[in-house]
């Protein structure tokens, strides 16, 4: 009886527990049914979220153009390939929509993607084994071109799909790369902490103008089934993206290409440690070309030797180019008489200051005038002017008036100002001839605008305007910005005459910089390099261990272009000087650049036989035109047969003997461009309207379109370029491989 009593008691307890649980669950279900919520979460909203897909609609990144509208950077559509593995995706379709035969699929794709079949097969089999809906193929399946995508799609492989993606592309390769910079696809978190992909500026203009270029992404959402297909009533919501604004630079594609070609040739021949060059319109402050070596191809920025834009980011002791500002200060102060004589060679103001020597080992040239001292680039003359004539305190005021103690404010990232070293008496003297104090090339160019522009100093800039791509309206436009007047118009004119004497005078150090058609003025520089080796002296020794430079402008009576070139530690031959590589760059760019800008020649000594006026070309028979031009020593390339419809030069233009003229006919055919420079290839592309991709620098070694192939607008041309020394290495390698075979 005791046992039955206990059993009945426990049974009663269990009944109470079960009844309580039942009532609790029933109440909970009734509550959920009535309110439609669990833990303050709406079931209706939760279900809607589960069956709703939301996707970001990427804004198109703004394009970057040169000053004439030549595209320098844009988003190129590429494709990412993936494979659907789930049989359920095919559904009731008669044709399979998933991968049916992994073996065959991998075999067909491998040669098109240039990968091993086993690599693709492993991805497919692994996805099937893990019951995945779809798989991707890593780098092999990314960034596919339209042509490659079409080739794969033509195979009609079940389950192989593509998704379009944007890739930032630079059609001119290593072209003003440290100005334009580059942007890359990066992973970032959105507002909902989801990982999304966006193109982000990493360097150069792409970085500094990233917010302007990237625009604002949009979004699309819709309801779908478990296979991600839209429902018949998808409740679609679309927020349109706002594309980024376009940036127009002051860079001129043609002058920039002239500069890139010249620097590539010097880089190949002299293998310098560093090179920099910048070309400016001194009337406005616009930078029309800028380049450095080492550089990089923004389409493949791997193994980059130098990320810095040395023109704006690397201060150095510039040497004698600074003397133009020392003489300007003396003239402006009214203490300069060019006919006064002084004893050159060596100068020691007092026993506490180390002697200042002229660059010929302190030998000097005897008693000479200060004007001749400028021509000969005399350190002693500069020292006497700064220490005795102007005075150290007043000279410092002029250095600051030329703003050598400030950044220029150029619209490029990473600018670093130099430093005026002016603590000790010797430093106050050496600053007059560019030793001790440091400056960047762009600081010197900014200061030199005062000399080229009647005493008015202008801020350099590279952004011409910002344009809304949807409306075509200009959002912002820049113009010249006056930042100082350190000298008068009379002083500027006097200094221009002195600069002219450096190139054209009897004792001038800049004779190598003469141009055929234009009178050049400028100042040479041979700067010593500080020695980092312990016990090795303050500066490096040796013929090559200098930074050789030239800052020049032309035509000197009214400068339209101004250029500064530096070449650090070139490998010189026994009879070569540091001016050889510098003058090669300067002369090639300035002569051709001034002609391109249609600046009238001012050099009366030019022989007419060295040039010819371009006759009428368009509408004439191409063979007749070739005969006419080739008689004058002009190299021509006929792109097709028949009548000329376009040419790389215009009627009436003045061209030099041995120039290359491209003649495009009504039925153009691809010429053999092996051996052409990048500039020549881009001229051909502009004339026909080709979509050209370039890789490398130097001269063309391969072309994707065979010579003789009919051409039409929008055809795709790919060329590979190599410097001459690397071409020889490739040829030697090929010969070695043939011998081994």
What is this entry, summarized?
Residues 727-741 have a biased composition (Acidic residues). The protein is an alpha+beta fold. The protein has 4 domains: 2-50; 55-249, Penicillin-binding protein 2a (Domain 2); 253-298 and 311-596, DD-peptidase/beta-lactamase superfamily (Beta-lactamase), CATH 3.40.710; 612-740, Trypsin Inhibitor V, Chain A (2-Layer Sandwich).
Task: Describe what you observe in this structure.
The chain has about 750 residues and is an alpha+beta fold. It folds into four domains: about 1-50; about 55-250, Penicillin-binding protein 2a (Domain 2); about 255-300 and about 310-595, 3-Layer(aba) Sandwich (Beta-lactamase), CATH 3.40.710; about 610-740, Trypsin Inhibitor V, Chain A (2-Layer Sandwich), CATH 3.30.10. The chain contains 21 helices and 33 strands. It is globular and about 135 Å long. Residues about 730-740 have low confidence and may be disordered. It is an enzyme of class 3 (hydrolase).
């Amino acid at each position: 009886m005791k046992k039955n009593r206990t059993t009945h008691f426990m049974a009663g307890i269990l009944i109470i527990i079960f009844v309580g649980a039942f009532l609790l669950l029933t109440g909970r279900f009734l509550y959920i049914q009535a309110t439609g919520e669990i833990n303050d979460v709406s079931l209706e909203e939760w279900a809607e979220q589960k069956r709703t897909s939301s996707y970001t609609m990427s804004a198109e990144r703004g394009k970057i153009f040169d000053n004439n509208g030549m595209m320098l950077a844009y988003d190129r559509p590429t494709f990412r390939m993936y494979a659907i593995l789930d049989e359920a995706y095919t559904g009731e379709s008669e044709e399979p929509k998933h991968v049916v035969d992994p073996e065959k699929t991998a075999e067909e794709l491998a040669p098109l993607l240039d990968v091993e079949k086993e690599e693709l097969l492993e991805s497919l089999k692994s996805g099937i084994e893990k019951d995945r809906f779809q798989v991707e193929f890593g780098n092999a399946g990314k960034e596919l071109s339209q042509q490659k995508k079409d080739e794969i799609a033509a195979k009609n492989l079940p389950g192989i799909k593509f998704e379009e993606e944007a890739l930032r592309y630079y059609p001119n390769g290593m072209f003003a790369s440290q100005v334009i910079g580059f942007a890359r696809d990066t992973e970032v978190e959105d507002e909902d902490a989801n990982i999304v992909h966006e193109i982000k500026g990493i360097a150069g203009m792409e970085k500094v103008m990233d917010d302007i270029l990237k625009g604002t992404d949009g979004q699309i959402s819709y309801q779908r089934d478990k296979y991600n297909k839209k429902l018949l009533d998808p409740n679609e919501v679309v927020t349109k993206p706002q594309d980024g604004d376009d940036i127009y630079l002051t860079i001129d594609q043609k002058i920039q290409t002239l500069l890139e070609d010249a620097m590539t040739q010097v880089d190949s021949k002299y293998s310098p440690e560093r090179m920099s060059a910048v070309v400016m319109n001194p009337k406005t402050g616009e930078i029309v070309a800028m380049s450095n070596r080492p550089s990089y191809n923004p389409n493949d920025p791997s193994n980059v030797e130098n990320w810095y834009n040395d023109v704006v980011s690397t201060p150095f002791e510039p040497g004698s180019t600074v003397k133009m500002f020392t003489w300007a200060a003396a003239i402006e102060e009214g203490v300069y008489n060019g006919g006064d004589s002084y004893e050159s060679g060596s100068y020691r103001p007092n026993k506490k200051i180390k002697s200042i020597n002229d660059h010929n080992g302190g030998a000097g040239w005897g008693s000479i005038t200060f004007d001749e001292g400028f021509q000969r680039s005399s350190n002693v003359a500069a020292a006497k002017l700064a220490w005795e004539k102007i005075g150290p305190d007043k000279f410092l005021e002029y250095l600051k008036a030329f703003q050598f103690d400030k950044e220029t404010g150029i619209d490029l990232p990473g600018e670093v100002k130099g430093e005026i070293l002016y603590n000790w008496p010797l430093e106050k003297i050496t600053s007059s001839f560019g030793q001790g104090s440091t400056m960047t090339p762009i600081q010197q160019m900014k200061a030199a605008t005062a000399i080229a522009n009647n005493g008015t100093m202008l801020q350099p800039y590279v952004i011409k305007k910002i344009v809304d791509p949807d409306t075509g309206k200009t959002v912002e436009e820049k113009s010249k910005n006056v930042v100082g007047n350190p000298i008068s118009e009379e002083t500027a004119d006097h200094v221009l005459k002195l600069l002219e004497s450096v190139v054209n005078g009897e004792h001038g150090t800049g004779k190598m910089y003469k141009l055929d058609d234009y009178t050049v003025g400028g100042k040479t520089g041979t700067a010593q390099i500080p020695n980092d080796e312990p016990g090795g002296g303050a500066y490096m020794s040796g013929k090559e261990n200098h930074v050789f430079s030239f800052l020049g402008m032309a035509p000197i009576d009214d400068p339209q272009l101004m250029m500064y070139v530096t070449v650090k530690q070139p490998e010189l031959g026994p009879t070569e000087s540091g001016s050889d590589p510098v003058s090669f760059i300067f002369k090639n760019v300035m002569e051709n650049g001034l002609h391109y800008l249609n600046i009238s020649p001012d050099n009366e000594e030019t022989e007419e036989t060295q040039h010819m006026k371009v006759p009428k070309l368009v509408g004439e028979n191409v063979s007749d035109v070739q005969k006419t031009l080739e008689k004058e020593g002009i190299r021509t390339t006929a792109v097709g047969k028949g009548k000329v419809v376009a040419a790389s030069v215009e009627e009436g233009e003045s061209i030099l003997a041995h120039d290359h003229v491209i003649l495009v006919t009504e039925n153009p055919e691809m010429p053999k461009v092996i051996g052409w420079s990048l500039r020549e290839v881009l001229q051909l592309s502009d004339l026909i309207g080709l979509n050209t991709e370039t890789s490398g620098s130097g001269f063309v070694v391969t072309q994707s379109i065979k010579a003789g192939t009919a051409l039409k607008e929008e055809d795709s041309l790919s060329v590979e370029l190599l410097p001459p020394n690397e071409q020889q290495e490739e040829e030697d390698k090929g010969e070695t491989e043939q011998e081994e075979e």
